[in-house]
Amino acid sequence: MSDDINKNDSDVTVVHLMRHGEVANPDGILYGRLAGYHLSELGRQMADRVAEHLAPRDVTHVCASPLERAQETATPIAKAHGLDLATDERLIEAGNVFQGKTFGVGDGALKKPANWKHLVNPFRPSWGEPYVDQVVRMMGALDAAKDAARGHEAVLVSHQLPIWIVRSYVERRRLWHDPRKRQCTLASLTTFTYQGDKIVSVGYTEPAIDLVPAHLRAGAQPVKGKDKAFGA
């Protein structure tokens, strides 16, 4: 995607799509859209770190998924800029039939034959919200934020899968993928730069990477007993 931006054009808008921080989830539940899952203490540190990182930026709009972990991640960012925190339902986590179950390596829901019917089509996917539906709603949320912050910057806090899917769409990659290869670490920023109404570049930064446990970083191999304790 082109990085050529007319710096003299005042109609350049930046929308940062942020993944929430670490969640307190000692039972290793795939929490999905379930209520009641809050940031851990480390997750709050991640949120504060990104708020500090974005404090010098020209942020005029902050919005989050309605889920607690996203709201709590966005709150210090909004506070740092003296803004009210908005909520957009379109930023919510992807629907998943395994919600509420454990989903670890070698154990959990995948061991049960009754669940195998949900794994027949990885291209749609058959276990949850279609990728195309995620693209539609996430593009809508991005465009709304672009309009709300036109000429400035916006921050949207969402969840790993919808962030990765909309980035893949914008960068013209296939939507089906290996989840282990998503570049969307906890508290990371996937940044879309618009010129007018057109996305002209996509960037990626990890302001809190030193706080992210090694096994949760992009490309890390799953670790039995650790990977399932954290969601998206």
Describe the structure.
- Strand 5 (189-195) and strand 6 form a beta hairpin.
- This protein has a six-stranded mixed beta sheet, with helices on both faces.
- It has helices spanning 41-54, 68-80, 131-148, 160-170; strands at residues 12-19, 59-64, 85-87, 153-158, 189-195, 198-205.
- By secondary structure, the chain is α/β, with parallel strands linked by helices.
- It is 24% helix and 16% strand.
- It is globular and about 55 Å long.
- The longest helix has 18 residues, at 131-148.
- This is Histidine phosphatase family protein.
Number of distinct helices: 4
The best one-word shape is globular
Compute the separation of the termini in Å.
27 Å
Outline the biggest β-sheet. 6 strands, mixed
Enumerate the spans where pLDDT stays under 50 for 5 or more consecutive residues: 224-230
- Tell me the series of helices and strands, N- to C-terminal: EHEHEHEHEE
What is the typical, i.e. mean, pLDDT?
A: 86
In spatial order, strands of the major sheet run 3-2-4-1-5-6
- List how many beta strands DSSP finds: 6
* Percentage of residues assigned to helices: 10-25%
- Rg, alpha carbons: 17 Å
Structural class: alpha/beta
> Percent of residues in beta strands?
15-25%
